[in-house]
Amino acid sequence: MPALARLTIGALAERTGSSVPTVRYYEEIGLLPKAQRGPGGQRLYDESDLKRLIFVRRCRDFDLPIGKIRELVSLIDNPAQDCSKARDVAELQLTYVRRKLAELRALEEGLAHYATACNERCAGGPARDCVILEDLSDGDNCCRR
Amino acid sequence: MPALARLTIGALAERTGSSVPTVRYYEEIGLLPKAQRGPGGQRLYDESDLKRLIFVRRCRDFDLPIGKIRELVSLIDNPAQDCSKARDVAELQLTYVRRKLAELRALEEGLAHYATACNERCAGGPARDCVILEDLSDGDNCCRR
DNA sequence: CTACGCCCTCAAGTAACTTGAGGTTCAAGT
DNA sequence: ACTTGAACCTCAAGTTACTTGAGGGCGTAG
Lengths: 145, 145
Hints:
2 copies of one chain form a homodimer. The first copy, chain A, is mostly helical. Chain A is built from 6 helices and 2 strands, in the order ααββαααα.
């Protein structure tokens, strides 16, 4: 299974949807192991690096901070540990994501309201009379929050 | 209506849900005008500062970047301008928020799936067999994305 | 042989704040 | 009058997760 033995950093980046500097950055902060080097000094990667980077990127897609990913990576590197830690991380992140979701929904409603109101009631008029601008700086009488 | 003539920075921060350093920071980058100073050098604020800061904070609640807020603030400061710019900013932000919402929903689903799967199939076992860790580093056979 | 693309390192920049050090000033209590 | 202690001040540096830029090397296709 050493089908894929030598990947350049560019190829690795492309396969994982990362940028080249990001890959170097992950190495620098220790999320990826120090890469092997070719004769000219270029980094060379193999399957296991690819797998690791896919893991890291996926975690980032889930908005996990680097610190949490570090914990998970160390879990992978010490496979005898209890995996309930991974579940805890996932659950904690789930809570965070749900809170964010609620916030964003409120936000969407508010913005949609303003866009419509401005279109209907004041579009093109002077900024002084804009419902958005007025409403947003009013202490009490704002529709949202 | 000069009911509220002298607010300290701490009082202003509290009323707007900002931190004190944040208020100073906004002044530094020009989102708030340079504050008046009391005899000992402390900043003093009035109604209009309060109004402005509420506006800025509300925009930040809507996740607007500082640059956009700067545009809106300058709209407020030049009230003769056409307000359709405010609507454009709101609409652009709406698009952004809706994209974010979709991403987060997918994210929530994925995380929930992992948490449940780990609870049912491997909780407490060694990390080597964890469905989360395995699944996330697999190139093809991942359920998500 | 030279032009091009990919690679390298190291330093600094980005957003939006937060944190820390080191030092005044203000309001209250004794 | 004096002394706390809270709240204020400035300036510098740290935070997160990268991106961007300067300055240079290697390899190969024309």
